[in-house]
Amino acid sequence: MTGALDDLLTRAKRLRDGGDSAGALGALGGAAERARADRDPRLAYILRHLSDVERQTGMARRAHAAADEAVLLLRAQSSSLDLANALRLRALAADAAGLEAAPDWAEARDLYAGLDIPAGVAECELHLRS
Fold first, then answer.
1. Are the CB atoms for 117 and 85 separated by under 8 Å?
2. What is the pTM for the complete model shown?
3. Nearest 5°: CA angle at 42, between 98 and 78?
């Protein structure tokens, strides 16, 4: 079953890189369903990318929901960098949807600071000031 998931992820990347956001959304949605069914640990990674494409295509609330699920998964299973990146995407989606994003920006900033990633810290601080 991992082969089918890998195929969906490869297809999603190819479509996204080629500018086909609708196709990428379909492939990422399918990949998320497959990962859930298989209990694949890559689900959070897939949800992060799904959130990013949804936000870029104007589906801010859906993007926020996908990023929210990714954050919940990553809090339990992953590195600080993965969590910081997911918090960043959830904050971007929250901003786009008109929802409260400051707590996510602040937590991501703190994680990026602890990882010595100045670009991440700077982006978060910029959003916290706006």
1. no
2. 0.83
3. 75
